[in-house]
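User: Modeling request: complex.
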Amino acid sequence: MIVLRALLSRLVMTAITLFGVAVIVFVTIRVVPGNPIAMMLPPGATPEDVANLTALYGLDKTIAEQFLIWGQGVLAGDFGTSITTRQPVLDLVLGRLPATLELSIMALVMAMLIGGVAALTGTRLRGTRTEGGIDIANGMALSVPDFLWGLILILLFGVLAPIFHISGRITPSLDLPFVTNFYLFESLLRLRFDLWADIVSHMFLPALALAIPLSAIIGQLLKQSLKETMHLDYITLARTKGYGENHIILREALRNAILPTLTLVGVQFTFLIGGTVIIERLFSYEGLGNMAIDAVINRDLPLIQGIVILFAVIFTGVNLIVDLTYALLNPRLRHA
Amino acid sequence: MNLNRRSLLQLSAATAALGLTGLPLRAQGIEELVIAYNVNLPSWDPTVGPSAVNPTIQGIYQSVFDQFILQQPDLKPAPGLLTEWGWNEDRTKVIMKVREGVTWHDGSPFTAEDVAWSLARAADPATGNPINFVWSTLANFAVEGNTVTADVKQFDPTIFKWMYFLTGYVLPKAYFEKVGPEGFEAAPIGTGPYMVEKFERNAFVRLKANPNYWGGKPEFETVTLKFVTDAAARVAEVESGSSHVTLEVPYEEYDRLKATLSGTATPVSDIGMIFLNDIDVMLDPNVRKAAALAIDKQAIIDRLLSGYGVAIDTLETPDYEAYDPSIKVGYDPEQAKALLAASGFGPDNPVKFKIQTTKGFKPKDYEMVQAIVGLWRKVGIEAEIEVYEIAKHYELRAADQLAPAAFYNWGNSVADPTTSTGFAMFGPSPHSVWDSADLVEKIAPLWGEADEAKRIQGWKDVSRYIAENAYVIPLLQYVQPVLAAPGVVVTPHRSGALLPHLMKRA
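Assistant: Request completed. Predicted assembly structure:
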């Protein structure tokens, strides 16, 4: 009952947060310079032409009126129509969301693998040169931003040793049997490993560029947690029982040390999705981030609103899930 | 699990194997021409919305749709879907002959009805055609056989030029009415050289050659346009062999790669210029003239653009109809100093104003403005640079609130003076910045001038007057670099449109 009440409270808070985000975004993009009508004015347009176009896109009303109309539409599931593509915003955004989610999840998995391996190796070989090497590598991975990693990876594995694709999400000439936009997952479910390999080959470099800085954070935190855990009494007890070092790290210490890392991974996942904006652009990956940049350049107000709201939903949703997961995993919170 | 050197090596090998399974399809034949395109295609209807007036997208539209009149690579018009066009004697009617034997991509016949409907639709403000103000000068379309006629509501000497310019596309009447705008967006058809096979928004469009194209089947059966908006990524695309052709790469990269790839660098109908606003210190003719004379355009082109650019002295490039080579605004810093001194300014007492510019919107835009500010400083002009986004430029310009100086680029792929000097300098136009009455007076009579020779000479005179008074500072005509894989020959189009049907095998 207490958990249910807490959950309801969080949901109410989430709704208020989303409303606040909607108001801020709606007002901000209309106040900052950059009028979409001015961008599409042809040479020679008369003041009447300007007025006609402004009315056509509903920008002749006050911001409050525009927000009210938009808000009513959103409640009915209509996020408006994109100015540049003239497609429903919801369709556009939901159509691109799977691509970004798949990229983010792949990046997260890669980051956890790289960071996890680095942390376990560093803990196992603590005090040796290998640990020092891992620390230096972590520092480098953190110091270089993801887009620069992207450029380095394009140069290395796209140009010098062209192993992976450097643009797009899938080879255009392939026939796609997909009914969803979750290409990676659907190709696996359909046992179409040829398509899966092609998709992975396209996603590998952008996902790795996103994963490298995050893997360093995960690696550092997990290694630190493991080191602290290795000094606890129950680890000493395990040693006296004669367990090997690998068993102690993987079976005894990791279980406790991983909790703070899990929380961090949840929070970082939301930042990871934010980071896809530039990486998707760099790799011409057809996700939400790439669409967001075009929307901002073209001052496509309805599309910007839709994308930001969706990002906000993801951020708040992931944070909610992380909190709930942490509560379930942590016995002190579970039994509180 | 034992974490040792062997297990780490096994893990690394597994990771590498994962990558190798997805090797790019590098052996794909030249039948599948892949072009790394520099912009996304937001929408398929070439007559409505912001995309319709975006010059960078026109090359994609022209691959699928035909314009009323064909425009050749040298910007000159040629018979297309219209084989003949003109006015009646008293210019109260337009008469257009429509090509016969053409089919739409779905196999249905193209008719004069399609032309009349497309023009009437463009003239209807409810459709949202941004160039409606041009198309609405025609009305009462009538079809007789393969001839379309219309009444001239207001004479516009450039109306037929618009028929190969922005939104001047012929769309299929019957198909459009059957499927509606949404259906058309999902499955567009035209009469153009290529048919749309597959379109992934923000990713690529795959085109199939139209076997029935009236201009002859294109050489490449399949063309994929990959939307690669990042210039560095486009360079990597052609360098790695993932794409066969790309455009708009940095000039340094073009110079580096043209030795191994084939390259063309052609002046296009896009210029760099500095708008001067009739406010503050710009009201002083000595300041304006000094600002123009203090800029060494050729040095800027040579040093910042690796020599890729053509210095210009008016808003008309050598390709344009009203280009007058006798109009010159030289580089004369001493004369600039003298002019400023006459107004009480000099290096020790500089005249101060703001110059606005984009950064990265056009090649070396910010760097060019930095160089110009440096040149100005030497003669006694202290300009403060403000960087803004292009969207802000449009808004400020439409509201006539630009700074005293603002860097911008201007395209004019029909080469007519109305669409360059005219709209850029005519006060009532929402795009003009210098709005003085003397210039409005000179330009106004030219809009409806029916005598073509007189009209062109009139615009040349206007250009001379603008240059003498330094109402704007033209800088350069841009050069478009195109890189292609060996074996692919690209015919550049002066409009800047990269057209796959003009590409051949070597």
